[in-house]
Amino acid sequence: MTTVTKEAAGPAPAAPGAFLSVRDLYVRFGTEDGVVKAVDGLSFDLERGSTLGIVGESGSGKSVTNLAVLGLHDPRHTEIAGEILLDGQELTGAGERTLERLRGNKMAMIFQDPLTALSPYYTVGRQIAEPYRKHTGASRREAHRRAVEMLDKVGIPNPRLRAEDYPHQFSGGMRQRAMIAMALVCNPDLLIADEPTTALDVTVQAQILDLLRDLQQEFGSAIVLITHDLGVVAETADDILVMYAGRAVERGSVREVLREPRHPYTWGLLNSMPSLTSDPDEELTPIPGTPPSLLAPPPGCPFHPRCAHTAEVGGNRCSGERPLLPEGRGAACHLTPEQKRRLRTGGATGLPPERHRTEQPGSRPA
Amino acid sequence: MKDAGGTSRTADTLPAPRDGGHEPSRGEPLLVAEGLTKHFPVMGGFPFRRQVGAVRAVDGIDLSVGVGESFGLVGESGCGKSTTGRLLTRLLEPTAGRITYRGQDITRARRRQLAPIRPEIQMIFQDPYSSLNPRQTVGTIVGGPMEINGIDPPGGRERRVRELLEIVGLNPEHYNRFPHEFSGGQRQRIGVARALGLQPKIIVADEPVSALDVSIQAQVVNLLHRLRREMGIAFLFIAHDLAVVRHFSQRVAVMYLGKIVEVGDRASIYERPRHPYTHALLSAVPRAALWDDDEAEGDGDGARAGAGRRTGTAPGRGRERIRLAGDVPSPVDPPSGCRFRTRCWKAREKCATQEPPLVRIEGNHEGHLTACHFPEEPTTAARGADVILDPALAAAERDRGPSPAAERDRAPGGDG
């Protein structure tokens, strides 16, 4: 199992053995209103065969990061800086040719909405076979056989017949299975799944997540799982990266982060999530306010306007100084470990002692 | 409570307990549906289009929401939960069945007859982007329904709107702003303020938080909670998220393909479910609370054996794992007998021929009704073997070797 780069000191060198290594990534979009700092200095590493869950709310930069890995941003409006190393190969600034050879072959993506990600004009079988033909040079017949085999593997009944169907003839869950089949057809080393189950029903979500995990064991791919649902990460990933306003605010193994979260934002996420085990009559503890605009992110710690513990840190440190995320297990927060322990005496239960009231007037429209 | 004719509507400030008069007490049924049915015609044929079938979206359901009660309706997409909400608010005409509001039959009530009742049954919609007119200011949006219904609060409508904005946690200064200036959560609050302006007795909330970010969801759920508690407004809370429903509802009904398969108190449904579908739904909810059921896996190294596989846990520890096969069947041609039988691991002959009635089965608490011939044990604890109906999943787990959990348990009644 992975532990997130214990060896690397400083943001510069990639961890040895890391299959995907993102160092100091910046992604900026030029818009009419100004420059959107979508990703603002992000680093993470991922080993083969393990799963990294990237958690964050909409606009936290989690999807943008992974589109950058795949090289899918429009270069005319996007400024990308930093390093993206896939198996030692630099991807930032790589030519379209290089990326094309990698996409669908060495790295593949599963999108959130399979209906828009699949083409309505071609049969499902053909769409799965196409990347296989392109990357392996297989014959049409061979590729078709491979597509049927993949459909069978992801649990589509009567795969031979269903390969001739068009996406609209598939149900939502089956489309997502077809997407997975398409992503895995070339045996990619890296699979990026962007909210792969958000559009699905819970019972289907459970099937798909388990299936992804089982297929990973078989194929040995590294998976980046992007989601807003900590529950999904808990059930699927090995490591967690929590993102807020384009930055990583906490990282660690699933167990470490969920048992002993160290960033107030992670505390907030866990406390605002209703669960099947918490006291149902207790009010939820939301995070007050709304996520910041990335046109003008708050100075210092981006979470400080919504954080309840800035006074604890004292001075203007939270609004003035940007906290750094240490390599490996850690959180980007100015609170000292003792302060955190005191604020979260709940410890193993994951609940902070103070349940402040947070019906805040939303005075800052986004 | 005003008389049912409701001609004299003077809005007093909402947080105050409303007109102490002959307010029906809590627990009394407020909105009742009996045998409620909605079939949408499916047209086809050439050259003359005629009805060739029907989408049986809601197919004979009974439910009752009490005064000040919050009633949760859960189910997966296509189960008819939203249609039910729209039928109860009379936004859709029912095909059959009866809807009574405070004892008065409103199933076929005409527009004019409905007029005095309409304000009392309000709705909050799922999508905070499309449910607010982008060309109107917040003041117009929230004040509009009051104007239409001729409500003249003391101090004027504008003052009242500002009060409402404050109640839902928005800045009253934003009276003249437009919806696009607000975030999703704030828009949802505007929708809530609009509903509150008419002093509703019941609000039908159709997936009110599912379009919102996690940190914002809790804000809106807490707001609705407060409205129910402090203003005594009843809620029909429609959602697919079982955890949210659990937090908000006192009673819960589980729907599947147009039918209610199980209904009961929150505790009964979540802790002592009997219908296999309810079991499957509960077991499918992803949980962040690893520390609850993870202990058996050994501690310390931070590594999670088998990439989170929780199948080795001893029975009684953790929770059951049920993975259904496939998706929900089409409501155009639902399965005969019990509609869940095509995805159920306990299905037998009887399930295909006889539709199970929604009744209180042995061992259930008062008011807990289940529609199943072969109900499950009333526990959600992990079983000796997981129920894996998905063929691909079962195959993958069988390949992986001697995991006891990969064994498929198709034997009826073989669970503990």
Automatic annotation (TrEMBL), chain A:
Localization: Cell membrane
Q: Which UniProt keywords apply?
A: ATP-binding, Cell membrane, Membrane, Nucleotide-binding, Transport
Tell me which residues make up the ABC transporter domain.
20-270
Query: Where does the record place the region Disordered?
Result: 327-366
SMART domains, per database record = AAA
Gene3D superfamilies from the UniProt entry = P-loop containing nucleotide triphosphate hydrolases
Task: Extract the InterPro entries matched here.
Answer: AAA+_ATPase, ABC_Ni/Peptide_Import, ABC_transporter-like_ATP-bd, ABC_transporter-like_CS, Oligopep_ABC_C, P-loop_NTPase
Task: Give the GO molecular function terms.
Answer: ATP binding
The reply on keyword Transport is: yes
Q: What SUPFAM superfamilies does its record include?
A: P-loop containing nucleoside triphosphate hydrolases (SSF52540)
Bilayer disposition of the protein = Peripheral membrane protein
Alphabetized PROSITE patterns for the sequence: ABC_TRANSPORTER_1, ABC_TRANSPORTER_2
CDD domains per the record? ABC_NikE_OppD_transporters (cd03257)
The family annotation for this protein states: Belongs to the ABC transporter superfamily.
**What name goes with this protein?**
ABC transporter ATP-binding protein
Automatic annotation (TrEMBL), chain B:
Residue segments, region Disordered: 1-28, 293-319, 390-416
Record-linked CDD domains: ABC_NikE_OppD_transporters (cd03257)
Alphabetically sorted, this entry's keywords are: ATP-binding, Nucleotide-binding, Transport
A molecular function (GO) term? ATP binding
- Tell whether Nucleotide-binding is among the UniProt keywords: yes
Under the heading Pfam families, the entry gives: ABC_tran (PF00005), oligo_HPY (PF08352)
Give the Low complexity compositional bias ranges: 304-316
UniProt feature, compositional bias: Basic and acidic residues = 396-416
Source species, domain of life: Bacteria
Q: Where is the ABC transporter domain?
A: 31-282
Q: Spell out the family assignment given in the record's similarity comment.
A: Belongs to the ABC transporter superfamily.
Q: What protein name does the entry list?
A: ATP-binding cassette domain-containing protein
Q: Which organism is it from?
A: Streptomyces lycii
